[in-house]
Amino acid sequence: MTAHVTGTIKNRIGFITLDRPKALNALSLDMIRALTTLLNDWQQDDDVLAVAIRASTERAFCAGGDIRFFYQVGTAGPAGGSALLEDFFTEEYALNHLIHHYSKPYIAFMDGIVMGGGMGVSQGGPHTRLRIVTDKTAMAMPEVHIGLFPDVGGSYFLSRSPGKVGDWLALTGQTVSAADALYADLADVALPASALPELYSALETQPFASGAEVIALIHASAAPYAAGFKPEDSMLAANREAIDRHFAHHKVPAIIASLESDGGEFASKTLAALRRGSPLLLCVTLEQLRRGADMTVAECLRMERTMVRHSFEGQEVLEGIRARVIEKDNAPQWSPATLDEVTDEQIGQFFSPVWPDHAHPLRAL
């Protein structure tokens, strides 16, 4: 399909391989378009029973969107690429919606790094998805650290994690393990990465009469390893009471104050992670998840499309990318610089309509 996405049908399964290893399979616009074309074609092909997406490298499934591209076009001015940014997010979010509502089993092998946009192409609808993690999985939604918010449907799937676990993941941007992903309802089954080649071989050779049989094989293959990936033994489970207590507050300063009164090691580490994020986007993200909890997938994606337009109209995300990725000085000059300076008006601006409903880029979802 492209230099970085390949699609093949083997044994009545459509296999998609992300193959951009030097960029940790970060999604480009061309990759998004290739994925959309393959999924649309295979959804109409009766000979395809299921779709599986995986990576060519063990290091990463997908580290997110191509944020270097965001910076390049975002700093070029209106004539230098703003239309490309518009296309990127419109088409990426439409792809996320397609995956969530895919009519056939959609199997994501989330081996290695899974962040941002990688979550968007993994978190399908509950009736057809199978999200597989391994002992090498490193999962995160770290957008607040670059002055953005957890998009690609994060409003939907993070707000539906148990208790306030999704809030913790979104506001801290911390990386979690396979057991944590299972506990947070961001994965379905787990197995060692070393077992993947044998599973791939079985998928490519064992006869199947239905997509349900494909899913059953994977569950059977993962079952012997379940004891090694117990959700109840995860870090998130161990700290669930503290997460729910501190993140129950409706304002970020109140969350910070609650954590500061704790004194424990987990609270201290959580505070350090929160302080890496943009004060403004921390507040915007919390509001985003509160709203997303009562929205459909389509409504969440339309909201996020509005939010991302506002994000790139400002400078916060470009400053975050500069500091974390381009110049790597890790000293972003956030504006406002502190939580005390963030106003309700500034937060609300991210949710103010950009287009009338009939002209929204994702109105067809």
From TrEMBL:
Domain of life, source organism = Bacteria
Q: Which UniProt keywords apply?
A: Hydrolase
Q: Does the keyword Transmembrane apply?
A: no
Q: InterPro entries, per this entry?
A: ClpP/crotonase-like_dom_sf (IPR029045), ECH_dom (IPR045004), HIBYL-CoA-H (IPR032259)
Q: Where is the Enoyl-CoA hydratase/isomerase domain?
A: 13-351
UniProt name for this protein: Enoyl-CoA hydratase/carnithine racemase
Lineage of the source organism? Bacteria, Pseudomonadati, Pseudomonadota, Betaproteobacteria, Burkholderiales
